[in-house]
Amino acid sequence: MTSFNRSLVLGLVLLVLGADEVAWSQSAQADDTASGKRVYISVGCFTCHGRSGQGGSFNYPVPALARTALPVEAFNAIVRTGPNDMPAYPASVLSDKDLADIRAFLRSLPGRRPAEDFPLLNQ
């Protein structure tokens, strides 16, 4: 086998393996988002933060979580400790995978639209 043929075969193998990895990661991300939504609803996060992560008002303004930019460590620390009136969710209640799935779901949400998108607000 010539050096050109070996390079061609190696390139094709890497292409096939790489394409498979991309397809797998996209389906895994979709599953994580669906799982995150299920957990977000089942543990009651939506009661304060809204079904779309839009935030709300409880005893004080509750932050919007859609498209959260919180780093993973900060997000996990907040969920684990439960600041203010938020309940704490220890690992015995929410696993690290559950937290990652919830964060993936929140990051997948569209977030707030700019005021320019609402004609009534621009009169």
Describe the structure.
The structure is a single chain. With 123 residues, the chain is mostly helical. It has a domain at 28-111: Orthogonal Bundle (Cytochrome Bc1 Complex, Chain D, domain 2). The chain has four helices and two strands, in the order ααββαα. It has helices spanning 3-42, 46-49, 72-81, 96-108, and strands at 56-57, 61-62. Strands 1-2 form a two-stranded antiparallel ribbon. Strand 1 and strand 2 form a beta hairpin. The termini are far apart.
CATH topology title of the domain at 28-111: Cytochrome Bc1 Complex, Chain D, domain 2
Quaternary form: single chain
CATH class of the domain at 28-111: Mainly Alpha
Report the mean per-residue pLDDT as an integer.
80
CATH superfamily membership of the domain at 28-111, which one?
A: Cytochrome c-like domain
Estimate the strand proportion: under 5%
Rounded to an integer, what's the Rg over CA atoms?
Answer: 21 Å
Which stretches are poorly predicted, pLDDT < 50 over at least 5 residues? 3-28
State the order of secondary-structure elements, H for helix, E for strand. Answer: HHEEHH
Give the proportion of residues in helices: 40-55%
CATH architecture of the domain at 28-111: Orthogonal Bundle
Distance linking N and C termini: 73 Å
What is the 3D form?
globular
Structural class: mainly alpha
* Strand arrangement, major sheet: 1-2
